[in-house]
Amino acid sequence: MRRRRPRGLSPAAYGIVVLALAACGSPAAPATDTVTVLAAASLTEAFDQLSADFTADHPGVTVELSYGSSATLVQQVDHGAPADVLALAGESAADPLDRSAVRSSTPFAGNVLEIAVPSTNPAHVTGIGDLGRAGLKVVLCAPAVPCGHAADATFAKAGIIPSAVSREVDVKATLSKVRLGEADAAVVYHSDVVAAGDAVTGVPIPEAVNTRLRYPIITLTGDPSAQAFVDYVVGDRGQRTLRSFGFTSP
């Protein structure tokens, strides 16, 4: 509805009054907060879902996710990269982290290694012993990243020298070699096999030689929204989501 200017009030003065009334009557914009989360590549699908669920429950809060190898993420934080939360694949991955930057650290998930092969398994890989077979194209994570370090430990326990043709920067790059048909097998995490669905087939590694990792979630700032996100991840709903993506309790 158009307002009528009262008699005796100049147009300029009337305009000031209208603007003042509009400002008083308009609801305040909702407060916004951004939580920056750096997470291991193996957490991609799970944290995408956790972020969506968390922000749905917390209007005005945005979660910015960045994924990579745990070793790279720790280096980024140590070199001053801005982050509120850091989630790593394995507690040992946090060893190089500047402890003065850590406010709290909580184990929130577990994972084990698994062999991923193309869905039709053309090389007929049936167990870890096959990964030492001559001519088999095996892809592993780089030794410096948790999935590569864990794979090396597993092969040592099994007494197997794998016929590795490449070692990739993180677990997703390793798995992609199988998905693209460039490798006969790869050693990744069980959660990655679950996330890949029908694109790959998983071949279990016996518990006696497998390597289990406990994932820590690390709070780096005192932002209340960051702590709320961590609480959500370690809480019942977050844990159910993680289990649905192939992770176990820590």
Description:
This protein has 250 residues and is of the alpha/beta class. Helix content is 35%, strand content 24%. It is built from eight helices and nine strands. The chain has helices at residues 11-25, 44-57, 70-78, 146-158, 171-179, 190-196, 224-234, 236-244, and strands spanning 33-40, 61-68, 85-87, 104-118, 138-141, 164-168, 185-189, 200-204, 212-219. Strands 1, 2, 3, 4, 5, 6, 7, 8 and 9 form a nine-stranded mixed β-sheet that branches. Strand 5 (138-141), helix 4 and strand 6 (164-168) form a beta-alpha-beta unit. Helix 2 packs antiparallel against helix 8 (236-244). The longest helix is centred in the N-terminal third of the chain and has 15 residues, at 11-25. The chain is globular.
Write the layout of secondary structure elements.
Layout: H1 11-25, E1 33-40, H2 44-57, E2 61-68, H3 70-78, E3 85-87, E4 104-118, E5 138-141, H4 146-158, E6 164-168, H5 171-179, E7 185-189, H6 190-196, E8 200-204, E9 212-219, H7 224-234, H8 236-244
Parallel strand pairs: 1-2, 1-3, 5-6, 5-7
Antiparallel strand pairs: 3-9, 4-7, 4-8, 4-9
Helix pairs in contact: 2-8
Give the tags.
disordered N terminus, nine-stranded mixed sheet, 250 residues, alpha/beta
Brief synopsis:
This protein is of the alpha/beta class.
